[in-house]
Amino acid sequence: MVDTALNTESAVADPLDAAPTVDKKPFWRIFVERNKLGTFGLVLLLLILLLTFIGPFFVDGNVKTDVSKIYAQPEFWGHPLGYDHSGRDIWAQIVNGGRSLIVVATVAAFIGTFIGVTFGALSAMLPGKFDTIALTVTDVVLTVPSIILLAVLAAFIKLDSAFLLILVLSVTAWPTLLLAVRAQVLSLKEREYVEAARMLDLGMARILFREVLPNMASYIIINLVFHISGAIYGQVILYFLGLVSFSGTNWGLMIQDAFRRGAVFNADSIMGLLAPMFMIVLLLWSLTLIARSLEDVFNPRLREL
């Protein structure tokens, strides 16, 4: 009897002992394995940031006109992209021309995202006059195409400073996000934990910023990345249309200057047009890859593997 009991216990215990153990992988490894394109986009973005923020310490940004080097051939060491129509080093302009573009786009995206998230959430939490006014203003802004709105604002405001450019770009970044956040908050505020917070009288600010918005963090961050891309597009359009001050070095200004000088019809000057376009495309591509992979990053099931 004892032997039989022991055999029975071992037979019951064996399947448990044979159960496979769950291998907990580091989060960064899961990200790399699950998001190949996202990892590539992140690496590409880091390389662009190193070029535009660290590169100027090694490449002089004070590019001077030298008529003796107009359309001069590229030099592998020091001047790999050659010279433009004014005899200026194109590589030096590329290295020093991206920092302001990225900084302005990032700040404008943060401001636009903050406006959209804050007023969208308040519009859902405060029905009545505030909600009506917020929706009316949003609908009015949405009826005007963002490109036309940017051009009109730039025509009335002299964009001779980064602050004014950020202000104009942020004005067009919030309406769509406001409506999306409002719709999600209208759904979230009916959840049990929000109702419990109301019964405890925790206050509107605590309920909104501690209970509701954290559940939308992934959505907000993804929209922030897309807003950065949109702000870069907006800057390039404004520079190309000649609605921004022509001072300094900027990828958008390089495109406008090269196009105005007829780079499309001159093979010798085509590099002055293609180089900044190529950098802008790489930057936008990296941001798009990162935004597409963020859904997997914020998916809690990744940590359960």
What does this structure look like?
The protein is mainly alpha-helical and 305 residues long. The protein folds into two domains: 25-59 and 246-305, no CATH class; 103-228, no CATH class. 68% of the residues lie in helices and 0% in strands. The two termini are 43 Å apart.
Which keywords apply here?
2 domains; 14 helices; 68% helix; mainly alpha; single chain; 0% strand; globular; 305 residues
- Biggest β-sheet: count, sense, barrel? none
Seen as an oligomer or otherwise, the chain set is single chain
**SSE string, helix = H, strand = E?**
HHHHHHHHHHHHHH
Tally of extended strands? 0
The total of helices stands at 14
Mean pLDDT: 80
Number of domains: 2
Stretches where pLDDT falls below 50 for ≥5 residues?
8-23
User: What share of residues are in beta strands?
Assistant: under 5%
Structural class: mainly alpha
Cα-based radius of gyration, to the nearest Å: 27 Å
Terminal residue distance: 43 Å
Shape: globular
**Helix content bin:** 55-70%
Brief description of this entry?
Helix content is 68%, strand content 0%. The chain is mainly α and 305 residues long. The chain has 2 domains: 25-59 and 246-305, no CATH class; 103-228, no CATH class.
Question: What layout of secondary structure does this protein have?
Answer:
Layout: H1 2-17, H2 27-34, H3 36-54, H4 90-96, H5 99-125, H6 129-143, H7 146-156, H8 162-171, H9 175-188, H10 192-199, H11 204-212, H12 217-240, H13 251-260, H14 270-297
